[in-house]
């Protein structure tokens, strides 16, 4: 795949929504270990609002902006704030309706930059950033011009780093109160974001 179009991206979103929906209960159960157990429901409703907004006929940049705003307007909580910020940031980074490899890197870097405005969490803090940051870095480090290669590098990095959260102590959110006891299970946000990147790769 040499260019990413709005239609390609809509297909990626549909795959991501299906994969996230399929694991909804699992994400809530993971969140329940050290939190309020709502992550599955929250990520599914945020994604569902984004999908609905993505179905309108619009250019790539507007579509991403609409998706981010739909999440912010229709859902609440940290899950939607972060996912909404991601799509709004992707809109900032979006330069055209047919993106080449560098355009796709700019798209995802825009998303990450805007999420960084919402959370100070970094790699190692046991949050969704453990999936997002390595995914975007893997894309940046990938020298291929084939967008499928970028997406698959991102998916692989996100999956591995989400698995790494199993041995981490949580530093953010309610989970931080659990200290050592937060070890032993994957972070729910890292799990759902890694699932999204996995589905983006197809
Ligand atoms: Mg929660």
Describe the protein in words.
- This protein has 202 residues and is an all-alpha fold.
- It has a single domain (4-201), classed as Serine Threonine Protein Phosphatase 5, Tetratricopeptide repeat.
- The chain contains nine helices and two strands.
- It has a two-stranded antiparallel ribbon.
- Helix 1 (6-22) crosses helix 9 (188-201).
- The protein binds magnesium ion.
Question: What is the topology?
Answer:
Blueprint: E1 4-5, H1 6-22, H2 24-34, H3 39-54, H4 60-74, H5 78-93, E2 98-99, H6 101-116, H7 129-141, H8 147-164, H9 188-201
Antiparallel strand pairs: 1-2
Helix pairs in contact: 1-3, 1-9, 2-3, 2-9, 3-4, 3-5, 4-5, 5-6, 6-7, 7-8, 7-9, 8-9
Magnesium ion (MG) binds next to loops.
Q: What is the terminal separation in angstroms?
A: 12 Å
> How many beta-strand runs?
2
What's the total helix number? 9
Please tell me what the overall shape is.
Answer: globular
The strand order across the widest sheet is 1-2
CATH domain class? Mainly Alpha
Looking at the structure, the CATH topology is Serine Threonine Protein Phosphatase 5, Tetratricopeptide repeat
Unique ligands: magnesium ion
Give Rg in angstroms. Answer: 16 Å
Identify the CATH architecture: Alpha Horseshoe
Give the amount of beta strand, in percent.
under 5%
Order of helices and strands: EHHHHHEHHHH
